[in-house]
Design goal:
single chain; about 425 residues; alpha+beta; four-stranded antiparallel β-sheet; three-stranded antiparallel β-sheet; 29 strands; about 25% strand; rod-shaped
Length: about 425
């Protein structure tokens, strides 16, 4: 038997009592159904509309005090008592009691505490169930949290791209540990905006040719890099001396090579001497040289105005009478030049004199040989003194020589005597 005593808490109040037994496994079963029930101080004794048996008849569709489905006791002066004989009970049960007070004009009865309706927004006091749970909970009494990956009213919402899905708030869906790469927002359902990527979209994309083609997850440029940049993320500038898409172009003759734009190749501080143009790859036109190619080559170059575009020096030398790299100097004789030429002249004259002397000696020796041959011939014919006439470039003279050691005049005399004697 289960006995309930209710001390009157309100003056001129009446207690309306209906109940059912509920097992812990939440399989609802009215174990008091049609059992014997009793009450003390029944409201209007003898009126079955308020009899104790109404509390165990299983009817709960009309819970008005006069609906004939509840036991009603008068509690103005005495304690209201109601009990039911359940016989032997081998299990633990929950008891649901509904009561109505005249002053409050409301139906109540479910125990109002957190274990039943702490997460409930709209409760049904007739069934002691919750018809609408707070966000993040479900169940007959809203006693269960949403499963992992779900949140909100009736757990109908799906969590976003949380780094740790278990850290998704079952109430609001907030990712407590942050968003996966490529997503942002409290619920991590928002894609990164253009040019952002990574965890919580905290990273900035590189110089992608098409910013829309920057991966929101890895930051990779899916097409290619803008001019002047290379690498998977397009954050690396071209190395020194290169520019353009994929850094495939070579800078021109910039005055300062470091000032070659890695994007366009433009020489930001101008060109080296001998070159012009935005990229400094054009050589000066014929006849001009130097920075900006504004200086004119010399007209005294061997070929007029044919000079080196960088230095301005004449190609092929200068015209007659001019000298120097630019062929602007006259060829006048200086003191050293005169000394040089005098030295050359003296050296040449000395050489001529020596050559003439050598020739004279050679000629003299040749004449001497001819004279000796002439003397030999005379000695073979007439042994008389022979006068030799020698002439030549070295002067003329007469030389007498004897054919042998005998006096030629003695021989003539001897020959004359012989002739006369005969």
């Amino acid at each position: 038997m289960i006995l309930f005593n209710y001390q009157s808490l309100f003056n001129n109040a009446m207690l309306v009592l209906c109940y059912s037994f509920v097992t812990l496994c939440q399989a609802y079963e009215n174990i008091a159904l049609n059992k014997t029930a009793y009450q003390k101080n029944q409201y209007e004794k003898g009126n079955n509309t308020f009899d104790a048996s109404n509390a165990v008849d299983g009817l709960k569709s009309d819970l008005r005090w006069s609906g004939g489905q509840c036991a009603v006791s008068a509690t103005s002066k005495e304690t209201a008592t109601w009990w039911v004989d359940l016989g032997s009970i081998n299990s633990i049960h929950h008891i649901t009691i509904y009561y109505r007070t005249e002053n409050q004009n409301e139906i109540s009865g479910c125990p109002i505490h957190e274990s039943y309706f702490g997460n409930c927004l709209v409760s049904n006091t007739m069934t002691c169930q919750c018809s609408k749970c707070k966000p993040g909970f479900f169940g007959r009494r809203c006693e269960f949290e949403c499963d992992v990956g779900h949140y909100g009213y009736n757990c109908n919402e799906t969590c976003g791209h949380c780094i740790d899905p278990r850290q998704c708030s079952n109430v609001k869906g907030t990712c407590l540990s942050g968003c996966k790469a490529g997503y942002s927002g409290q619920t991590c359902k928002e894609d990164c905006i253009v040019s952002q990527y990574g965890y919580n979209c905290n990273e900035t994309c590189g110089h992608c040719k098409d910013p829309i083609q920057c991966s929101a997850v890895t930051g990779t440029c899916l097409t290619r890099c803008n001019a002047g940049y290379v690498g998977r993320l397009c954050k690396e500038e071209c190395v020194f001396g290169h520019y353009g898409y994929n850094c495939n172009e070579t800078c021109g003759h910039c005055k300062d090579p470091i000032q070659c734009s890695t994007v366009s190749g433009t020489c930001l501080t101008g060109c080296k001497a001998g070159y012009v143009g935005r990229l400094c790859k054009e050589v000066c036109v014929f006849g001009y040289y130097g920075h900006g190619c504004i200086k004119e080559c010399s007209k005294f170059c061997n070929r007029s105005r044919d000079c080196n575009p960088v230095s301005g020096f004449c190609n092929g030398g200068c015209r007659n009478g001019k000298k120097g790299g630019y062929c602007q100097e006259d060829r006048s004789l200086s003191g050293r030049t005169i000394e040089f030429y005098c030295f050359i002249g003296a050296l040449g004259l000395s050489t001529i004199v020596i050559v003439v002397l050598i020739i004279c000696i050679i000629l003299k020796r040749r004449n001497n040989k001819h004279q000796e041959r002439g003397h030999e011939q005379l000695r073979n014919t007439v042994d008389i003194p022979v006068a030799y006439h020698v002439g030549g470039a070295c002067g003329e003279y007469i030389e007498f020589r004897e054919g042998n050691t005998d006096n030629p005049y003695d021989r003539i005399q001897e020959r004359s005597n012989v002739r006369y004697n005969k």
